[in-house]
UniProtKB/TrEMBL annotation:
<dbReference type="GO" id="GO:0050661">
    <property type="term" value="F:NADP binding"/>
</dbReference>
<feature type="active site" description="Proton donor">
    <location>
        <position position="221"/>
    </location>
</feature>
<comment type="similarity">
    <text>Belongs to the homoserine dehydrogenase family.</text>
</comment>
<feature type="binding site">
    <location>
        <position position="111"/>
    </location>
    <ligand>
        <name>NADPH</name>
    </ligand>
</feature>
<keyword id="KW-0028">Amino-acid biosynthesis</keyword>
<dbReference type="GO" id="GO:0004412">
    <property type="term" value="F:homoserine dehydrogenase activity"/>
</dbReference>
<feature type="domain" description="Aspartate/homoserine dehydrogenase NAD-binding">
    <location>
        <begin position="10"/>
        <end position="126"/>
    </location>
</feature>
<keyword id="KW-0521">NADP</keyword>
<dbReference type="Pfam" id="PF00742">
    <property type="entry name" value="Homoserine_dh"/>
</dbReference>
<dbReference type="GO" id="GO:0009086">
    <property type="term" value="P:methionine biosynthetic process"/>
</dbReference>
<dbReference type="InterPro" id="IPR036291">
    <property type="entry name" value="NAD(P)-bd_dom_sf"/>
</dbReference>
<dbReference type="InterPro" id="IPR005106">
    <property type="entry name" value="Asp/hSer_DH_NAD-bd"/>
</dbReference>
<protein>
    <recommendedName>
        <fullName>Homoserine dehydrogenase</fullName>
        <ecNumber>1.1.1.3</ecNumber>
    </recommendedName>
</protein>
<comment type="pathway">
    <text>Amino-acid biosynthesis; L-threonine biosynthesis; L-threonine from L-aspartate: step 3/5.</text>
</comment>
<dbReference type="InterPro" id="IPR019811">
    <property type="entry name" value="HDH_CS"/>
</dbReference>
<keyword id="KW-0791">Threonine biosynthesis</keyword>
<feature type="binding site">
    <location>
        <begin position="10"/>
        <end position="15"/>
    </location>
    <ligand>
        <name>NADP(+)</name>
    </ligand>
</feature>
Amino acid sequence: MPIVRGAIIGAGTVGQGVYNIAQQRREELKQKLGGAELVIVKILVTDLTRPDRVLPPGLANPAEILTDSIDEVFRADVHVVFEAAVGEEPIFTYLQRAIVEHGCSVITANKVMFARYGAALQELASVTTPPPTSPFAKVFVGFEATVAAGLPIIKPLQSMCFVHHVRKLEGILNSTSNYILTELRLHPERTFAEVVATAQALGYAETDPTNDISGSDAFMKLLILLSVAFGQQPDRASIPVVGIDSLTPEMLREAAAKGLRYRHIVRAELQIPTPQLPSADDGACGADTAAWSPTCAPTAQLVCSVRPQLVGPEHPLYGMDGTTSALSVWTDYLGCVTINGPGAGMYPTASGMMEDYAVWMHAYKRAAPAA
């Protein structure tokens, strides 16, 4: 299998990062992935005539690779689509067509689309077979980069859930909000507006930072995590979402005086009614065994929130400053496990997508016919 034909939807920051890594790591990936060479044959953009478009360095033949037609992308006989666009539509329709009509695998960083349509895409992939000419045995949907860029959260959580039962998770999933809260704590003389402007100047916040500071961005990421960790998504309206713009200078000063810190935290917990709490006499559900299962408390309720939360030094997210993203997961066998690192940016996000590509290559490559 000498060539893997790839396409990128979206030529913005993340799309360019995917292209750059594919070029920079071309030979290394080829050696590590059984001789298969990834070649980006098409990049879908919304406007070919845009005068201020920034193209990836080294793109030698933009006229041949760039297109504004999804049909032209599919005519290029691609094996995998890297989706680095924004919004739900027409992106979901494009990926749906890629899977159903062309047996193509998809790797996405689009949290808004995936929070709503991720389950549908995975179901379509599970019942779709690539064409006989494809070098791949199954259709794959990768979404590691939807939650915390290249920070490995999705795949470890999926692995945990084979053995462990997740009881609770708490995370800092918006690095912009975390940066703003850190700066306001370290420099109390600065105003909220001043710190937001600095975040924008540094590239941490968008021109319109509403999704970051309102909690909307973190909310979408929580929905994706709920599907992985608990196999469900509660009704969206039932989850309170409060942004960091709800905090006042007085609240921040009072927290600092008490040695506490505000973190913008997504939270989900299986709450067990008191009569169903395990006891030592409950056998497999007993308090003296780690092998507790949600089936021991069939009416356990998944309670979720997205809001600023005060944490003390004992909390695993207390020390996560700056643009750090982090997720703490409480399970029956492991207790609390925390993963943290950079959770945004061109290369962190693009690297998460490329890691999904490597997983796909290892897991779904069609076996060579016997000699």
